[in-house]
Write a structure and sequence with these properties.
Layout (H helix, E strand, L loop, with lengths): L3 H17 L4 H17 L4 H15 L2 H4 L4 H16 L15 E6 L6 H16 L3 E5 L7 H11 L4 E2 L6 H14 L4 E5 L8 H14 L3 E7 L4 H13 L4 E5 L8 H10 L3 E5 L7 E3 L2 H8 L5 H10 L3 H12 L5 H8 L5 H8 L7 H4 L6 H12 L3 H5 L6 H11 L3 H30 L6 E2 L3 E2 L12
Parallel strand pairs: 1-4, 1-5, 2-3, 2-4, 5-6, 6-7
Antiparallel strand pairs: 7-8, 9-10
Helix pairs in contact: 1-2, 1-5, 2-3, 3-5, 5-12, 6-7, 8-9, 10-11, 15-18, 18-20, 20-21
Length: 462
Amino acid sequence: MAFEGLSEKITSAFKKLKSRGRLSEADVKSAMREIKLALLEADVNFKVVKDFTKTVTERATGAEILESLSPAQQVIKIVNEELTKLMGGSNAKINISPNPPTVVMMVGLQGAGKTTNGAKLAGLLKKQQQRRPLLVACDVYRPAAIDQLKVVGGKLDIPVFEMGQGDPVEIAKAGVDYAKKNAYDLVLLDTAGRLHIDEALMDELKNIKAEVKPSEIMLVVDAMTGQDAVNVAKAFDDALGIDGILMAKMDGDARGGAALSTKAVTGKPIKFIGTGEKLADIEPFHPDRMASRILGMGDMLTLIEKAQENYDAKKAAELEKKVRANRLTLADFADQLEQFEDPEKMQSMLKMIPGMDASALSGAQVDTKAVGHTKAIINSMTPKERDNPSIINFSRKKRIAAGCGLKVEDVNRLLKQFDMMQKMTKQFNNMSKRGKKKGMGGMNFPGLGNLGKRGGGFRFPF
C-alpha cells in the first residue's frame, strides 16, 4: 500500500524524538533531516520537500514548542498539519451541476486506467450519492475500449451509450442529449488517451470540452509512475484546464510521492484514489486522513465508512434480537463467515486501526481454507440441523462429514466452537442485564460488538 516505506521511516524518526523527553533545536533538525530523506526516497518532488521541511522546522523550533510539556507530540502535530496542507487541506468534492446532468469528462494517458476508473467513479457516486449515471464511450481508437466499458458498466449495472467508431465530439454531444431525455443526472465521458501528450490528443479533448461544457474535467493518473504522474498532471492542466485528479493504483505504489507532490505542483486537488483492482476499490481522497495514515495514526473515519458500506441494518437488527434471546443458529454462523472470505480487504481495513503496525500485518494470513471447511460443514446439514444442532447424533455427523468431504472430527470441532459461542452469548446477556440494573447502559463484550445500543454490530468469536 502507498506510503508504507515513508510511514516506517517517519515513525522511526518520531520514536527518537519521543525518547528524548525535552528537545533541543538540534534534535528537531536531526529528525527533519531523516524525514527529508524519507520524502525524497518516496519520490516526492524536491522543491516540495525543501519547502515542506523548511516550514515544519521553523514552526517546530519555536520557543513555545520546545518549552512545552510534550514537545515531541507538538512536533508530530505540526508535521501532521503540514502534510494535510501539502495534500490539499480538505476533501475536494466533484463539481455538481445545478442543472442536471452533471458531465464529468475523464481524461488521461493510455494505460492510466481511465476506462475502469471512470466506471468505478460512476459506481461510487451511484452508491454514495444515489446518482443515476450514464457512461459514454468516446474512445474510438483503442481496440476493445468500447467493449471494455460495456463489461465494467454491466458489472456495476450502469448503462453505456455508444455509437461505434464515429466522431468522438458528436458521440459526447449525443450522449449528453440522451442523458437529458432519459433522466440520467450524471454523465461520464470515457475519452481517448495516447501513450504521450501530443497536439492531436489535446485538440480532440478541447473540442469535446467546447461542445459539451463539462462540469468537471477529471484527470486519471497512475500513482506508480511517481513524478511522471505529477508532470502529466501539469501538462494536462496547462493545455486543457483540469478540475481534479483521480489517482489510480495507489495500492501498488509503496512510495506515494505523486500523491504528496501533485497539489503543490499543479494546484489541482486529488479528489479520488483507486485502492485496488476490484470495481469497489475507489474512495474519496481525504488529505487529513491520509496524513494520519502516513504518521501511523490510523484512519478510523474511513474504516467506519467501509464497515457501513457492507452493513445491513435490517439483518443486524434481526441478529441482535436472536443474540438477546440466545437463539443463534448455525445458519447465522455461516452468514458471518462471509466477512472473512476476502483477506486482502480485511488486512487493508486492519491497517486503518490507530496503532496497528502495518509491517507486522504484511505476513499475516487469514486461514480461508478453515473458513471454507466450516461453511462446507454447515451447508452439508439439513435446515433442521442448522436450527437445532443438539439433534446431531453420531450417524448424522457421519452423513454431514461424508457430504462435505471432511471428517467426523471436523464436525465435532465446529459443534464444540458453536456451543462455546452460545455459552459466551448467554454470559454476555446476563452481564448486560446486570449492567442495566446498575445503570451501566451498553457494554462492550470482546468479539460481540456493542450490543447495548440499538443496531450494534455483531461478530462471531472463533
